[in-house]
Amino acid sequence: MQCLWCACNGGLGAARGSKHRALVLRGTTSSTATSGTVVRVPGVERRAASPTWVNCETDADRWGIGVVGEEDFGVVDVEKARVGVTRAFEIQNKAADREHHDIVLLEVSLGSEKAKAKFRSFSVLEKGPMSIPSGQPTTIHVKLCQSYIGRCYDRLEFLFEDQRLRKRFIISKALQAVIGNIDDHNQLQPKVPYVQRQNLRAGIERQPEIDVVPGELPASTKAVPYVVQLPQAPVPKNVLQAVSGGSFEKALQRVRQECVPSVLDTRTYGRHFKQLLWIEEVQMNRDIEMYDMEGTELSQHRAYLYLKVPGLAEKRPSVLVGDIILVQPHKAARGHWFQGGVHVVHRDEVGLRFHRSFPWTHGQLYNARFKLNRYPARRQQQAIGLDFAEERVLFPVESHLLSTSTSRSLIAPRPVDLRFFNQLVEANLPQARAVTSIVGQPPGSPPFILFGPPGTGKTVTMVEAIQQVLWHNRNARILACAPSNSAADLLGLGLTALPQDQLFRFYAPSRSTQSVPDSLRRYVYTRKGTEDLGKQHDARNNARSNAVVSRDLFSCPPVAVLKRFRVIVTTCVSASFAHGVGLPKGHFTHIFVDEAAQATEPEVMVPIRTMGDEKTNVVLAGDPRQLGPIVRSKIARTLELDTSYIERLMRRAMYNSASASDDAVQQFVKLVKNFRSHEAILKFSNERFYDGELQPCGRPPVINSCLESSLLPKKHFPVIFHAVAGKDDRESVSPSFFNVDEVIQIKTYVQALRADRSLRITDAEIGVITPYHAQVLKIRRALSAVADGVKVGSVEEFQGQERRVILISTVRSSREFLEYDLRHTLGFVASPRRFNVAVTRAKALLIVVGDPSVLSLDPLWRDFLNYVYYNGGWQGPPPSWDTTAVVQEANVGDGIDRREGSDMDDFTARMEALTMKAVEGVDGMEEDANVDRPWRDVE
To answer: Is the Transcription keyword given for this protein (predicted)?
Structure first.
């Protein structure tokens, strides 16, 4: 009897020696099965007469024949693998009766040969045919030869025939090897098997918070003299009930029916976003549970009890001065907690102060629970709840454009007296046009949008526009915001030519005064805050006395002084301070928001709704083609909380491309000169995301600095794709993935970059981007001894940044479960925004490391891989597909169309939903999915 699956399916059968049900034919071989009933087997179609199914174990001894050998070559050093490593397989004929003595080995082959693979790591040195005598072993040698880091898999097939009975059978062996550094593999491989957190918590009720003893909060919580009370805005019970229990689909249905208005307009705007903010807060509270600590110690120094927090330096969790952490003795009474106020934040520990009744003892074990800082959510709820019915701001249409002679000056030639502060902006036509348009807008205009693709100088243009508005309007008062402190600092640094009495940089009191850039120090306002540390021991006189500590705290000057500043710079959420201390609505003539695509709409509404009136002009700068705001709730994302305000406006008719080119309207300008990247690095994203309009204008000494590097497969093409067939792993209770093979390849590249004297590159000029936090940690560990200064982070952490050299580790690689690969990999790979950000950070050299067999499942990635291969930038085993074939936009596995434009987020969201369903098989796994989403400080 002949097994069609093993013998006829081109090497795609039981690749790991697994048992399978196989179709067998009586009295015929697969080659002669040309008539009869059509029988379908996964991957094959054969016609058979009277088919019978039997169980077949292709790796088992059969009819007295056994094959023994080392199928796993283990970890093989690259140099040894390049030369070649040979393993022997012994065929033993152990038949006791004469009936099975006449055994012939017809053929020894590899599954990759039958599949006609372009690249094979293994080869068979003796092919057959040969007789297999009884009692005397026959040796077959298999050679491994590969010069690339990664994993090799194949199937070795022995086809035998019993010549007396005229029956054939197959014995197969699964070959595998790992090419790489043994020491690195031992150091980086999983130390503890992965255990799903939900399984660990099964049947364990989370400790309640019944009796909480208040702690001592730092002086910074009262540093700003607020006169307007901030609402508590607790999550309503109906929202909590709607998002809890059942599947995602049912929860979403309840939310739509019971919470969110069916139509978004000026009347329902406030209710809509309040609900979404509460839904997101519920998920954030769930996510922060993953950082709960049990059985940890507290150390004492002066009046503080210090808690070590793993991941604190990476904001996992994010903890700021003024936050609260609940602590209880390890075996305390159920529900009894002590509130610890965070007074000190160091790199890996926080200093807490509790009520004097807190039972601290050296060596005692404690449980700790992190609490979500609700101030950002409350500030957004406050802003959304304010009466603000400016249709021109929320839902602008062309009829809102003011048809005065002043507005017509927007499209007129630049005024003669418009003298640019930055001559480079003057020479850049789109930048100059944007500045001219912003300056000429009459009060009460619809929002102006500056669309700035990567490296085109959004912030420089915004700074110039602010300076020109101040110069041309002596009564102008500007509130300049950005979603993060780093982005707000860039705005502030661009305005340091202003006198000290005209520019104020406001920081939230929770931030450290040491975080201020030196050039901005004279523009901040601080006040002394004192804290009574209680009785402290004085070694000089062996006495105890009250100790009082005094430190500088960020604050703001009196309202009368605030009104005199012409520009105030802060984050979007912290902009609520102006309303809170009593600045009147309409005080600011202009509100500028830089990097607006990275903020949720409620964040941007904090400055607009608290400070704007019918005359306030709004200017937005950003790129909706790059990453949007981080939203942790799948329900909130489905309801488009992750659609930024600038993106929503750009979908409206008055901001579309036709209007943008109309000389009668200048509310939208697209920047097109890229000052960051070499043309080869920019080209792919330019064509796929920006209609080919971007013009490479980077400084030649920088963008051309790597063109002669020995690392390049092809000189003068500074893009490399390095194919690595790796293995994605998890360990302990972390659901985040890592890929040791890619870590080793990244390390190899970094070492080569640092050793290349022609490049003269420093650690600070290299960046490594990877989507999974576990991979971030593994790469940092691998680089710690060779290039400790290289920044390694997620795509989100690199948005807005650039490096001379960028390396990308895509991580996902699986050979065992194609469906698993397809769905889970696309959770990252099919995000066009994430792809766009990652590949546009490099100035002079882009290196992508990944598994092409997985990446190519996605049309966008396959297009990119074809681009690199066609231009000679490929390293490693060649593509397994036809690189000249036109890439179909339909997704390979799910029939989901990708189209550029407004449905980009929807495509990503659907793929992420499929991802988690494929990985775990159930809904409700958001906490695991969110482990790789960074926590963002918005104050």
So the answer is: no
